[in-house]
Amino acid sequence: MPIRVDGCKELVGSAGLRYENARMTPTEERQASTAAAVLAVIAAALGFFVDAYDLILFSIVRVQSLTGLGVPPERLLATGVDLLNAQLVAMLVGGIAWGIWGDRFGRRAVLFGSILLYSIATFANGLVHSLPAYTACRVIAGLGLAGELGAGITLVSELLPARSRGYGTMIVAAVGVLGVVVASVIGDRFAWRTAYFIGGILGLLLLGLRVGVGESGMFRRVRNSAVPRGRFLALFTDRRRALTYICTIAVALPIWYAIGILISFAPEIGLKLGLAEAPTTPRAILFYYLGLTLGDLSSGYLSQLFRTRKQVIRAFLIMTTLAGGVYFTCGGRSLTAFYASCGLLGWTSGYWAVFLTTAAEQFGTNIRATVAVTAPNFVRGLVTPITLAFKNLAPTYGMLTVAAGLGVLVAAVAFLALTRLKETYGRDLDFTESL
Fold first, then answer.
1. Cβ count near 105 (within 10 Å)
2. Residues 6 or more apart whose Cβ sits within 8 Å of residue 416
3. Alpha helices, DSSP H only, in 148-280?
4. Which H/E stretch holds residue 235?
5. Which of 81, 198, 200, 251 has a CA that sits 20 to 30 A from residue 316's CA?
């Protein structure tokens, strides 16, 4: 139903808002819509930048920070796994909460609330002097980070026209993963407390940019209707919807298996592969995410060029599986070979942008934020059972055997899940789900 905004009739389309007004020409309407979309892309991209910065920063400063807090050397790996899992569980909980909030009160509200909570918690990480306080800050930061990416992708997907939607999410993902590259450099060159201070300050600076970000026109229309919104449990009350949601999550598992196991524990795995000198986690992350940035750009571009999300994901899944084989068979030859295999693994795992776009395109406006916010967090959260399996099985069956076996399992699940998803390229997102 049309509503009044400043005396002008508001018409909502797939690209956002336009106003039927004698003072606004069609050209001005297009320019206003384009400006709103560009600002949303910039805000979402920088939001993912600080999201990625913090999320991976702990892996980079894990040894340095835990040693500084008095954790003995023999407990560094186990304590690191426990802390990472605590943050990922917090992101699962936060993802559900922020997703529901985004569908009930708006995508823009999530962008403000999540970055504020994250910034305060991340800055506080640099002030802790005990392991319990460190854990608490990581959990709160996880709760804040949970809303960033999904809300940004939802807003960008709803503001951009179908023909260019993939380019927008491609830019968001590519700029975002550069946050990891920056975190790698800062974590490698600065004290761990300083690295956390920088992350908190970056988040607070981003708040100012978001003042000018507008709300999605599609959401505005749904908000002013009687359509039920943001019902997370409704994802599981319909068999088709539940299967689609689960399979959407499963196709991205190889990306976070690689990050959570092969990259985060690069020093331990590198020595087991036969390297005389242990690789450093910051450098492994740096090379992996440089590759991931190129992968997100190439996969996003290819999905637009060939007008398919599904086939591009399949191609990258195949390449990721092959790159995993290269990691285990060639990574032990030298440090150069190991870091090169990390970069290759990053490039082939770079279908995160296409995954995010696909997740947003699968569901209607009244539950889209819930899906887009929770899906990437569930992917990240599923690293918890994977790392726990790695931690508990490695002493018995060997670190390399367990790491490789988990990789094969995760790849098989992703390939199977992809067969159950529909192609969504060019889909009109102006529709709702029957909840």
1. 16
2. 250
3. 148-159, 165-189, 192-209, 217-223, 239-250, 253-257, 266-272
4. none
5. 81
User: Ramachandran region of residue 409, left (φ > 0), alpha (ψ -120 to 50) or beta?
Assistant: alpha
pLDDT band at residue 17 under the 50/70/90 scheme: very low
Alpha carbon distance 258, 254 (integer Å): 6
- For residues 387 and 81, the answer to whether their CB atoms sit within 8 Å is yes
Q: Nearest CA to 150 among 360, 303, 363?
A: 360
Query: Would you state the structure tokens that stand for residue 125, as one six-digit string?
Result: 């990480």
- Residues paired with 12 in a beta bridge: 17
Which residues in 7-16 are b (16+ Cβ under 10 Å) and which e?
A: eeebebebbb
DSSP type of residue 12 = E
Using DSSP's 3-state secondary structure scheme, residue 242 falls into helix
Each residue's pLDDT tens digit, 184-209: 889 888 999 999 999 999 988 888 77
- Quote the CA–CA distance of 99 and 342 in Å, as a whole number: 32
Closest CA to 218 of 95, 94, 361, 46: 361
Please, what are the domains in the chain?
3-418 (1.20.1250.20)
Burial of 74: CB neighbours in 10 Å, binned 0-12, 13-18, 19+: exposed
pLDDT of residue 271: 96
Whether the model clears a pTM of 0.70, i.e. scores above it, the answer is yes
Q: With pLDDT > 70 as the criterion, what percentage of the chain qualifies?
A: 93
C-alpha gyration radius of the chain: 21
Q: How far apart are CA 143 and CA 90, in angstroms?
A: 5
Q: In this structure, are residues 345 and 323 in contact, taking their beta carbons and an 8 Å threshold?
A: yes
From first CA to last CA, the distance across the chain in angstroms is 20
Q: With both helix axes pointing from N to C terminus, report the angle between 148-159 and 26-68 in degrees, rounded to the nearest 10.
A: 170
pLDDT tens across 20-41, in order? 444 556 555 555 677 888 888 9
Confidence of residue 326 (pLDDT cuts 50, 70, 90): very high
Q: Which residue has the higher pLDDT, 353 or 332?
A: 332
275, 279, 285, 286 alpha-carbon torsion, rounded to 10°: -110
Residue 25: what pLDDT?
62
pLDDT of residue 58: 86
Element (H, E) at 129: none
